[in-house]
Please model this.
Amino acid sequence: MRTTDNLGGITAFATTAQLGSFTAAAERLGLTKSAVGKSVGRLEARLGIKLFHRSTRRLSLTPDGEMFLARCQQAIDILEQAEAELTSHVVQPAGRLRVDLPSAFGRQRVLPILLAIARQYPALSLTVTFSERFVDLIEEGIDLVVRIGELADSSGLVARRLTTQKLVLCAIPAYLQRHGEPQKPDELSDHHCVVGFRRNQPISWLFKEQNGQTVRVTPPATHEFADGDAMLAATLAGCGLSQLPRWLVAEHLQRGELVEVLAEYAGGEMPISAIWPKNRHPLPKIRYAVDELVRAAREGLLD
Model:
């Protein structure tokens, strides 16, 4: 059997094992479910072993399959490393760059940078998604994500801090006229609050006390939104107080459409980071995108 057929079977097997189904593997590889299943079947026939337990409800690896997957992954890592080293001298990014961004910040600050790169380098293709969820870059085949907030440790990823998101508590003047203005964070329980929502939990608000210590406050979640633009819209509609990033509300504050509240307790910040799979020689498309984001952050374009 030809080497290319062998490699195709290995790729089909490894992708199916990682995603847990022939259907998901077919979507990832751009093949039909039948083609992926036949490719794995030919691989099993050639090896003389069963790699998967198959049933109508689930697909799981056999002990031989688990052992073979570990070896295949090592081989795939070596091949990807060889590709990265071979192309490390290439200056211009090319190929498909898969990026996942936080919704509001991604659309307003990061997407214009990615589009400028795509205009400059026609050989580069973009696949951009917007979400606030945890993304498994390796399993989902994503090259780069931008995330806001503290990061969980991961030995398989590299993170580069780009900037920090400064937070502002604000409301429209009409709301403050009706309900009054809180003078201390512990008075927030008497107010309507527009709160962020992530992983089925409301997001705490951050304040700085006079001693410089940052404290977390859980406000009453009158309204919950999983999107920054929606939170801003609700705040502008007079639905309550909200703690929002300064880059999102700066123009509204300047025009007097929003008023900053508890300014003496302001100073809460959240890191904004670029994250990509660990590789000694990242592919040019990833390296260039990260470099451009770092440059934009240095020039204040992400603030």
